[in-house]
Amino acid sequence: MSGSSDSGVPGAPVAPPVCPRHPDRVSYVRCQRCGRPTCPECQRQAAVGIHCVDCVAEAARALPSTRTALGGVRHDGRPVVTLTLIGLCVASFVLQLVVPTWTGRWLFSPILGYYEPWRFLTAAFLHSPGQYLHIVFNMVALWFVGPTLENTLGRARYITLYLLSAVGGSVGSVLLASATDSWTVGSVGASGAVFGLFGAVLVVSRRLGGDVRGILVLIGINLALGFVMANIAWQAHVGGLVTGAALAAAYAYAPAARRRLVAVAAPLTIAAVLVVATLLTYASVLTFS
């Protein structure tokens, strides 16, 4: 009979220690916190000895989260939300190049948005397939301002601001575009969402006492380009800018004790305003068309 550590037979062979996570791996190294064997894959170097991944995770959960001046949870490391947004836009752009129907399926125009409301958001993940600079400029701008807002506001408020600004850009096209030929022209791009981030950076920087001259110049130049260059939906830029600035103001100026409430109430309120304004415009235009 083969011996084991729990055979209870005096003098019987003792089975070698194995890693709890990987029972097929023998390990004579033990965690300095819990004393359990830990294989090389589960070992983490600590200030004193080796800790297992479970003890490291438990210790991390026990640490109090640090917060920014506006109450956002500070995350060390990569800005994962911004990187994810960039990745989604790039992946969608590749699909635009290889799937002929991809762009037409998700682009936005006011008349298409009336029948298929999801286009208010999906168009923000598309870019002009024949103009590579379109996606390059938007992604560079997103990388330029996104990580700062992600860290300052926290991931949840940041992604909410981005997505709501994207929708606000499409709403801007409904409210400000001429209800004739412009309502049938398709538009794509993350510009509305990016302008929302521009507006948010302006508000947040001012709230924290920073110098806002640089972002004001950036916003002014980009808005001006929308009016002087062809094939640029300046209406989406304005819609995204106003939406992002409004939501950022609610985040930035909320009393510390009510930040969690404002983080929920403010997006819902702004979303309701966007929906009502869009429906009223549709009712007005389509009734008399």
UniProtKB/TrEMBL annotation:
It is found in: Membrane. The chain crosses the membrane at residues 80-99, 119-146, 158-177, 183-205, 212-230, 236-254, 261-283. Keywords: Hydrolase, Membrane, Protease, Transmembrane, Transmembrane helix. Residues 116-251 form the Peptidase S54 rhomboid domain. GO terms for molecular function: peptidase activity. Gene3D superfamilies: Rhomboid-like. It is a multi-pass membrane protein. The keyword Membrane applies. Belongs to the peptidase S54 family. This is Rhomboid family intramembrane serine protease.
